[in-house]
């Protein structure tokens, strides 16, 4: 998607479409949309240089879990390390997701944030 905040609602709608056949509770979907919005916003603000840049959003569903990965193509996290003081987006990962992983600098540049939510179904 374009690295433009105007596209955050499109990203949330893509998530809704990706999970519509899954047995997610409304609260779980709301949590996923919140984490996705924050993660994409971070990728736009910190991982892009202009609205012409793009971020990639990938959805993978398996039995009992939805996994989402957000990838930017910017410089990655400063110094290749996560910040000591984490903002709202990164703190939501630990609080709302069943698992997550952050690749502060990917080979070829950029950062990737993966988060997953387990559900009964």
Strand order of the largest sheet: 1-2-4-3
If you average the pLDDT, what whole number results? 90
Taking the sheet with the most strands, its summary is: 4 strands, antiparallel
- The gross shape turns out to be globular
The CATH architecture can be given as: 2-Layer Sandwich
Can you tell me the residue ranges where pLDDT is under 50 for at least 5 consecutive residues? none
Please trace the helix and strand order, writing H or E for each element. HHEEHEE
Question: Could you give me the name of the CATH homologous superfamily?
Answer: Histidine kinase-like ATPase, C-terminal domain
**CATH class descriptor:** Alpha Beta
- What distance separates the N and C termini? 29 Å
- Global Rg: 14 Å
What percentage of the residues does DSSP assign to strands (E)? Answer: 15-25%
Per-chain topology:
Layout: H1 8-19, H2 26-47, E1 55-62, E2 65-72, H3 88-96, E3 99-103, E4 112-118
Antiparallel strand pairs: 1-2, 2-4, 3-4
Helix pairs in contact: 1-2, 2-3
Q: How would you portray this structure in words?
A:
The longest helix is centred in the first third of the chain and has 22 residues, at 26-47. Strands 1-2-4-3 form a 4-stranded antiparallel beta sheet, covered by helices on one side. The chain has one domain: Heat Shock Protein 90 (2-Layer Sandwich), CATH 3.30.565.10. Helix 1 (8-19) runs antiparallel to helix 2 (26-47) and helix 2 packs antiparallel against helix 3. The protein has 121 residues and is an alpha+beta fold. It is built from 3 helices and 4 strands. The termini are far apart. The model has no long low-confidence stretch (mean pLDDT 90). 36% of the residues lie in helices and 23% in strands. It has helices at residues 8-19, 26-47, 88-96, and strands at residues 55-62, 65-72, 99-103, 112-118.
């Amino acid at each position: 998607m374009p690295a433009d905040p105007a596209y955050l609602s499109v990203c949330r709608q893509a998530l809704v479409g990706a999970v519509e056949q899954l047995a997610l509770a409304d609260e779980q979907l709301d949590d996923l949309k919140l984490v996705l919005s924050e993660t994409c916003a971070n990728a736009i603000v910190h991982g892009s240089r202009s609205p012409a840049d793009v971020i990639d959003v990938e959805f993978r569903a398996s039995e009992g879990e939805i996994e989402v990965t957000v990838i930017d193509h910017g410089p990655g996290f400063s110094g290749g390390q996560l910040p000591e003081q984490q903002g709202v987006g990164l703190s939501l990962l630990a609080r709302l997701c069943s698992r997550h992983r952050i690749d502060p600098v990917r080979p070829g540049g950029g950062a990737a944030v993966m988060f997953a939510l387990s559900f009964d179904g």
